């Protein structure tokens, strides 16, 4: 897909970035995560659009678009998990729920996880003054989120296939439009340059005067003058 205008490339990159960002944000919010400030969201969208533009500047396959959406969704979800929760009382809620240092489960309120991963780290590992600084996540806690990961992967594959179909349709449409426009511009020029020259008209010889015209030149009618005498 090389040779396309820059504006069209950025429109395509913005569309892919918006869909990827939307999937990551919806997955993050549905898991009980908090949203960061608008400045962080705008920066994430700008970075995602730039990355998508660099990838889409060349011809891409459906598999590459699916990988782009899946990786972008994962990165978006991870950044939102680390950046969200800076304003508010998420760490206090985590401590009030009794998830202090040494616990291995995520802070939960009303069945939903509260705060960001950074808040959980500050409330557990950061508040601890003893013990090792290296913590190993609980496999049981990770398995609880396995259905969510599978659902995100399935949605990323479906959205990637949809975007790949849109890429093919857009490429076919642009090819058709360019072909028609070039055909309309080239055919008249060829027709003008190759038009056959008209042969000069041949003048026919003057036709002899008709009998009626000769008859009008005779003044006297009737028998000859000798017969009349």
Automatic annotation (TrEMBL):
Regions that span the bilayer: 9-31, 37-56, 146-165, 171-195
Protein keywords: Membrane, Transmembrane, Transmembrane helix
Membrane among keywords: yes
Protein name in the entry: Uncharacterized protein
Taxon lineage: Bacteria, Bacillati, Actinomycetota, Actinomycetes, Propionibacteriales
């Amino acid at each position: 897909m090389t040779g396309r205008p820059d504006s069209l490339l950025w429109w395509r990159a913005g569309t892919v970035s918006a869909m990827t960002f939307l999937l990551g944000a919806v997955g993050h919010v549905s898991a009980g995560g908090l949203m960061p400030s608008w400045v962080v969201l705008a920066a994430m969208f700008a970075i995602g659009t730039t990355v998508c533009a660099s990838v889409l500047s060349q011809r891409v396959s459906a598999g590459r678009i699916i990988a782009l959406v899946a990786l972008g969704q994962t990165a978006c979800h991870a950044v939102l998990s680390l950046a969200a929760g800076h304003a508010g009382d998420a760490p206090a809620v985590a401590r009030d729920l009794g998830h202090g240092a040494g616990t291995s489960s995520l802070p939960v309120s009303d069945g939903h996880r509260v705060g960001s991963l950074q808040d959980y780290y500050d409330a557990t590992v950061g508040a601890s003054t003893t013990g090792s600084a290296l913590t190993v996540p609980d496999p049981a806690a990770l398995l609880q989120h396995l259905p969510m990961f599978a659902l995100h992967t399935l949605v990323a594959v479906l959205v990637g296939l949809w975007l790949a179909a849109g890429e093919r349709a857009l490429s076919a449409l642009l090819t058709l439009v360019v072909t028609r426009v070039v055909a309309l511009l080239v055919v008249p020029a060829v027709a003008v340059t190759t038009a056959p020259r008209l042969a000069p008209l041949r003048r026919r010889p003057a036709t002899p005067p008709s009998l009626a015209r000769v008859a009008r030149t005779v003044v006297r009618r009737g028998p000859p003058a000798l017969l009349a005498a």
